[in-house]
Amino acid sequence: MKKINLTNIEFENIKHKHLAYCKKLRFKNKKNLSEDDMKKVFIENPFDENMKLKRGYGKYKKGNTKINLISQYKNFRTPNNKKLPSWYGAKLIKILKIEVCPYCGQHYFSTIQDKNGNIIAEATFDHYYNKSTYPFLALNLYNLIPVCRSCNSTYKLDNNDIIINPYIGELGESIKFSLKNSDIPNYMNNKKIFVDIACNNELTQNHVSTLKLKERYEYYQGIIKSTIKKRIRYSPEYIKKIAEECNLSPDFIEASLIKQDLFSEDEPFLKFKSDIWAQIQ
Ligand SMILES: [Zn+2]
């Protein structure tokens, strides 16, 4: 749900490693690519502000210059266990420091290796522009989005340019979760609590509907109910009382002591819990 921070993570270094790796690959029509073409296909941002392909990328998919990198992508995602290269998918995800799916904000993902370095379970990448229609973007950094399996294989599928690309933008404050007010008292009984999602632009709306976020968040009734319980326990009046006793401001107590524990950065459901917290007073 958050934009991938390209300044903190030495993105130039990532680009350098990725380009060096890609230059060594063997693929169809490689000889037609100049140094500039290589950069465009592998490490430059191919999207405009509306997440559409920028002008000039058409030449890579036409006629003789069509470049097919799909099998090379498979090697990048799942390299030969016996001879791991110095650069591959799991390393990219690790350096990007992404642990929670940026599409849904719900799931952790990681690549698990055994003590010999063999990959047992691998994290997945969504191709923002699907690789069968856009094979020349199969290894473009900005087209490789580390995501959870549900987003990749169940919801996003081969849809192109209708959701937010976390290299370019973020859901951030364009999305707001809320519980239906009349349902909040139901946390005490077993009735289902329903979720609303408000979006302030069309792309966010597409993101939410394509990935079925309302239904997926509503599914986690245990998280909804425990967040309500915590909020009721730490009511504004209770926080005010603690603040008075400590001679500190209620905002400081809420932000520094309580919310920091309940909504740690980089944990799943962060935005969801924060919005519910703000809703219930
Ligand atoms: Zn996801």
Task: Kindly describe this structure.
- The protein is mostly helical and 281 residues long.
- 38% of the residues lie in helices and 8% in strands.
- α9 crosses α10 (250-262).
- The chain is elongated, with a radius of gyration of 22 Å.
- The two termini are 25 Å apart.
- The model has no long low-confidence stretch (mean pLDDT 88).
- Zinc ion is lined by residues 101, 103-104, 106-107, 147-148, 150-151.
The largest beta-sheet arranges its strands as: 1-2
Mean pLDDT: 88
Percentage beta strand: 5-15%
Largest sheet: 2 strands, antiparallel
Distinct small molecules: zinc ion
The helix count comes to 11
Distance between the termini: 25 Å
Helix content: 25-40%
How would you sum up the global shape?
elongated
- Taken together, the total number of domains comes to 2
| Element string (H = helix, E = strand) | HHHHEEEEHEEHHHHHH
Structural class label: mainly alpha
DSSP summary, beta strand count:
6
- Pick out the low-confidence regions: none
Rg from C-alpha positions?
22 Å
Q: How would you briefly describe this protein structure?
A:
The protein has helices at residues 11-23, 35-42, 70-77, 89-96, 149-156, 202-210, 213-218, 221-233, 236-246, 250-262, 270-279; strands at 112-113, 119-121, 124-127, 144-147, 175-179, 195-199.
Keywords:
single chain, 281 residues, mainly alpha, 2 domains, two-stranded antiparallel sheet, two-stranded antiparallel ribbon, 11 helices, 38% helix, elongated, binds zinc ion
